[in-house]
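Q: Focus on the shape:
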Amino acid sequence: MSRDTSRKTAKEKEEELEKLPADVRARKETYDWIQSLMVALIICVLLFIFCIRIIDVSGTSMNPTLYNGDKMLVSDILYRPKAGDVVVFKTDTYDPNKALVKRIIATEGQEINIDFENGIVYVDGEPIQEDYINELTTTKLDFIGPQTVPEGCVFVMGDNRNASTDSRKKEIGMVDERMILGRVYCVIFPLTELGWVS
């Protein structure tokens, strides 16, 4: 019964609106539109402050997956790092003011080793399939393996292996999971590169 009353009330309100002069009705409709747009804007702002970030790629270390100037959507909501994910993180020892984007190669407890002569990366003694890399991994940087990834950390490398500063460099090393800003989900600009990141 209360539903019928509310329907009548809504219908009555609509009829009352119809009876108003055109200029008053136009102002009321404009006010309703502005109110709806403001609510949508506030929701978008809150979403981008607390859930999603737009971050620019700076450099070529993630070619061919990401390119210099790409804009990415990044989120850490319900995110648990896993091998193969492309993530954005910060590190106090390399450049605390700069966010880096790299791919997770190994997670806590896994053993990482690299055969630089043949360019093969091993995780737990098994070579990993890396269809996403620009070229084989032949640049050693400071890496001496094998290494076991400590608890709460990940080992990361750029897809452009021989032009990337990553976990092979002692200033970055194993990345604390708490320093991960989020996973890269997609590229939103330029539109020619629009798509999911895998």
